Amino acid sequence: MGTLEEPSRPVLKRLPTPVARRRLSAQAGLREVMGQFATGVTVLTAGGERAHGMTANAVTSVSLEPPMVLCCVSRAARMHEAIVTAGSYAVTVLASDQKELAKYFADWRRPAGLAQFDTVDWTAGPQTGAPLLDGALAWLECELAEVYEGGDHSIFLGRVVASSRGTAQDSLVFYSGGYHQVDGRIRASA
């Protein structure tokens, strides 16, 4: 008995389903799209009476002269008040083996205040007093220079008052809803 062959059909490229048809909110749709943008993973910290830490990937360099970086923090987050109260913040750039630190500082159930740092190794930043987490790729300490409104977040522009580089080689990145490691010795070919 012979087999019937399917007639040859052109391969059609499927277009993404519009957000409205997937029943996602605009916020969820934006989160899905931005999840396709790989970012470094940091922990923002602030010292002082409202000491706090928070995993963040909305951090970027703004200027080399003067040296400035920004971070974006939800106005509803405890970190927001911690930065405003301290008038400064620090950025710990996480190494590839620090995924558990990223998860810990993203978990709202951890203790409040300085107690949240009891289970991690850290040093007080010499300029800001903000906790700098051990074993990282790099650290920045920033004095708060400006605060800008950005929807439900604030954009904190910080003047870098100290920076240092660790000995770790590989970076932790966040992409497509998960943590990934980037080997700093491998370069993309041109």
TrEMBL record:
Gene3D superfamilies: Electron Transport, Fmn-binding Protein, Chain A. InterPro entries: Flavin_Rdtase-like_dom, NADH-dep_flavin_reductase, Split_barrel_FMN-bd. It comes from Amycolatopsis japonica. Keywords: Oxidoreductase. This is Flavin reductase like domain-containing protein. One of its GO terms (molecular function) is FMN binding. Pfam families: Flavin_Reduct (PF01613). Coiled coil: none annotated. Residues 34-181 form the Flavin reductase like domain. SMART domains: Flavin_Reduct.
